[in-house]
Amino acid sequence: MNVVFIKMGTKSVFTPGWPQEAVVQIVALHRRGYRVVITSSGAGETGRQLLGAGHATTYSRQVLSGFGSMELFRMWSTLLVPHGLYPVPLLVTQSNITTAGEATSIKRCLLEILQRTDGIVIANENDMVSDEEIQYWASGLGENDKLQVALVTLAQSIPEITVSGVLFATHKGGYYHTDPHTDPYAELVTEVSWETWPHREYLEVFLAPYINDPAPRLPNDIYAKVCAGLVCAKYRKVPRVAIATPHQLVNLITDCPTFVGTRIIP
User: Fold this and answer.
1) How many domains does the chain divide into?
2) pLDDT digits (tens, 9 = 90+) for 169-181
3) Is residue 8 within 8 Å of 38, Cβ to Cβ?
4) Domain range spanning residue 182?
5) Which of 13, 50, 88, 232 could be disulfide-bonded to 238 (CB atoms 3.0-4.6 Å)?
6) What is the distance between the alpha carbons of residues 178 and 223, in angstroms, rounded to a whole number?
7) CATH code assigned at 87
């Protein structure tokens, strides 16, 4: 069974039309026989919008994520169900995935859902149980990027599953040496490898099992995506890994020459 992972960060979730386009791509892959896991951020911002700016300030980001989780899942459900795809929420922590008994349970449920032709997994860090993901976000280490890597690793330990590709969606469309939103001369880097990326020292920061005090930082969230992509490509041997808009998911998985984004290679 070929499984594809797409990670949608908060900015991707709240870019108008992007969740809808992600669903278009996912439906197209399902018709080709692939199964999909969406790792979706955005619960905190959804909670903030649900409560309103003034009221939201009285709650911690951790509790805001609790308020927003239901609404975030409802959004994905509203988009997917009309296409005959029924999403199942998977709220987990890094501890769940690394604890033997809990990991076994997660694997069993993943397999059962993905073996169905109408099942799709919506994964998110369970911020009400652990605020590790929030701390990583505050340190520029990416929202749910580490969770995506952990779920890929977990899925690869299931004999019936082959991870065919991983996409880290970004509003920037890929990796640039400078910010394309502020630098009109910024050029898209179409390929990043372990040998060619000049910032491999950030991998140690990204892979740290906990937040140090003071917390290490990455320059911006795109570095977290490159780090996560390099782990998937080099260490997890996923054949197709990229940073791009969600519009490019099918192009990535089908090796289409018109793919636009940054491919991550070992």
Assistant:
1) 1
2) 998 899 998 777 7
3) yes
4) 2-265
5) 232
6) 12
7) 3.40.1160.10
